[in-house]
Amino acid sequence: MSQPYAYVDAQNHQLTIRPSLHPEHVSVEATNREWGGNFAVVSLPVAQARDLDRHLLAASSSPVDYEIPGCPADRLTVTVAEDFTVFEVTQAGHGTGGRITVRVVTLTGRLPEVRRALGDAIQAAEKQPSGEAAPAELPGRRVLTESEYNRAWHAVEGAAGEEGADPATVLHAVLRVLDIQTPPATT
What we know:
It is a single chain. By secondary structure, this protein is α+β, with helices and mostly antiparallel strands. Helix content is 30%, strand content 32%. It has a four-stranded antiparallel beta sheet, sandwiched between helices.
């Protein structure tokens, strides 16, 4: 899979499926693409991703709810109905103290496409070396979490797509989602 899978629903909410930054995990992301919209991501272990694939194949109307190991506030709930399937991604609101939930509604007829993307992401995640040591951090530098990185990535995508976007617009969008304040002279 050269590109992550992305589907945008009628409410301008995007579902993205890709291999996670964590070995042997699949990232499922939901983004409200409106300016200032929320973003939530969960990193499913491959076993849970395979279970999700089986659920989508069966097109069972019983919702499935995946709690993310080590992050009980983070979860993925998938409800398949005759015409629509709802992917609901909930993530702890880092820095806000609450939870962020974004729902993406896909046509149930698109489940084979979603399953192919999920299968591609599972295969890529299984090929990632597991147990590999994290790259050495440089003194005085903080490493972004996967959630921060994903929020920054989506801020760049959103800000760069705005009419008349310039580097300052993109930079300020990224700093805003990462909750980083600029020096007073640069704002």
